[in-house]
Structure formats: structure tokens, C-alpha cells
Design a protein that fits this description.
single chain, 139 residues, alpha/beta, Rossmann fold, five-stranded parallel β-sheet, 17% strand, disordered N terminus
């Protein structure tokens, strides 16, 4: 088998990774679940930041995709809790929000978010983010 063919047959670098989807709307969680599972990722879900932290205590995640505006604990607070925790700070956090205002984006990034997407996030944009986050062998 040629090297070129082997490259084409290779699974994405994120295949089999686990994603925690955090959003208070079940329809958004369902859409994201279908999207990430269609890309070969395993998904888990939480309705808010507190549920997300509880989920992290019981099962590791390779990536968190979180909304910002949620009851109990919002996405800003969740990002800060994850990124200040020695146990979880290496988990990439991607914010997925309807808020496209620079103030929201800068605040999320300042708190440690690894990326920021606006809803609705399409398949191609998610693939770009997954490649950036998981493929550390950039050319």
C-alpha cells in the first residue's frame, strides 16, 4: 500500500474521543450529539455547568462544548472552574453560543476557552476546530 493511500485511509485524529456537550436546551444537545457522533466522537451531555462538573467527576472528557447562558452555572463559570482545576485544566473548552459580541468572546477566551463558535455551528466549522484542538502535528 502506498503512503498516499495510507494517509487517505487514516481515521481522524479525534476518532473515539469523548465530548461533553453542555447546553440547557435539549434540542441543541440533540443536534450537537448527532453532529459529533457523526464525526466519530462519543458524546455525553449536561444541562448546565454544575451537571457538567458532576459528569467530569465520574467520567473523563477529551473536549467540552458549552453554551454560555444556562441556569445554575453558566458557561463562563464552567470554563473558569475547568481551567483553574489541576485535574481538568488540560481539557479543551469550546464555547458554542448565540452571542457573537466581542465582549462575550474575549471574556470566554480570557477565562481559558480554547475556541468560540456561534450557533448554529456547522459540520465544517466543527471539523476545523477539532483538527486544531486535537492535531498537534501541524505543518
Amino acid at each position: 500500500m502506498s503512503m498516499e493511500m495510507a494517509e487517505e485511509d487514516r481515521s481522524p485524529v479525534w476518532a473515539g474521543k469523548s465530548v461533553l456537550i453542555v447546553d440547557d436546551y435539549s434540542s441543541i444537545r440533540k443536534t450537537m450529539r448527532e453532529l459529533v457522533q457523526g464525526l466519530g466522537l462519543v458524546s455525553h451531555e449536561a444541562e448546565n455547568g454544575l451537571q457538567a462538573l458532576e459528569a467530569l467527576r465520574t467520567a473523563a472528557a477529551d473536549l467540552i462544548i458549552s453554551d454560555l447562558v444556562m441556569p445554575e452555572m453558566d458557561g463562563f463559570e464552567l470554563t473558569e472552574a475547568v481551567k483553574t482545576s489541576p485535574r481538568w485544566r488540560s481539557i479543551p473548552v469550546v464555547i458554542l453560543s448565540t452571542h457573537a459580541d466581542a465582549r462575550y468572546i474575549f471574556k470566554a477566551l480570557r477565562l481559558g476557552a480554547d475556541d468560540y463558535l456561534t450557533k448554529p455551528a456547522g459540520r465544517e466549522m466543527l471539523i476545523t476546530v477539532l483538527n486544531r484542538i486535537f492535531d498537534h502535528d501541524w505543518e
